[in-house]
């Protein structure tokens, strides 16, 4: 596919006896937001780590905007911005400095990085903390640290943006702003791979969903295509289960095409918190 900014083919990664990624294939095209869903331990972060060249696969291939992420991980890293699941080490920095440094490291001019940091702070509503210094164990809340890390990933244009649980610790109002910003990145032409447990909220901004289960892709397609035709189609459907149900009828490169269609609740209602969804 010509406009693919991420092409993962038959990726396999083991940790001893654990097959964390089992022949995973997926694509992200320029302008698309692809949500990567899956239970704890499904293999999402393992996949992300290989895409950004932090972990070598046992088998399979990864291309990031044309660069071979296995043979040339440094080349792939130049084409991708990552918001890691772990909190960014901000201690000693203000959000403004951290975002501007991230922009400068991506080749932005000082003036452009400064303007982009201000615009992102406004977009995410973190302006009141923009000049507050993060200190070990204090200074900035977990949510503001998370939003700052998102802004660091989003500040400069790159072909691929990978976001690993960007809404952790973020309040409901700022989550809405964050989702809008994720959509804006896609609309501006980036491919976005979005790892999230917050499937109900994320559904609003994703073009495609890919579902991992014990290292394997078990569903892939648009939310509309994956949504079951019966009850439980998401929030506000009156069934009270609050979860997107996915019809496991898959595209090529996804799950075993010989498997019979089945409905899988994602998330399991018991695992959901009071706000948003999870999986
Ligand atoms: N460094 C490691 N050493 C051994 N096992 C690992 C390592 N990293 C991951 N695993 C295992 O690989 C599997 C996939 O883990 P991974 O962190 O990729 O899952 P995940 O989908 O990101 O989970 P979560 O939603 O909890 O973040 C798990 O069984 C995990 O225990």
TrEMBL record:
InterPro entries for this protein: AAA+_ATPase, ABC_transporter-like_ATP-bd, ABC_transporter_ATP-binding, P-loop_NTPase
Phylogenetic placement of the source organism: Bacteria, Bacillati, Actinomycetota, Actinomycetes, Streptosporangiales
UniProt main location, coarse: membrane
Matches recorded under SMART domains: AAA
Pro residues: bias regions: 258-268
GO molecular function, one term: ATP binding
Domain ABC transporter residue range list: 6-239
Gene Ontology terms: cellular component: plasma membrane
Cellular compartments annotated: Cell membrane
Compositional bias of kind Gly residues: 227-243
BP GO annotations: response to antibiotic
Pfam families assigned: ABC_tran (PF00005)
Name this protein carries in UniProt: ABC transporter ATP-binding protein
Membrane topology listed for this record: Peripheral membrane protein
Region (Disordered) location: 222-272
Domain of life: Bacteria
UniProt keyword annotations, A-Z: Antibiotic resistance, ATP-binding, Nucleotide-binding, Transport
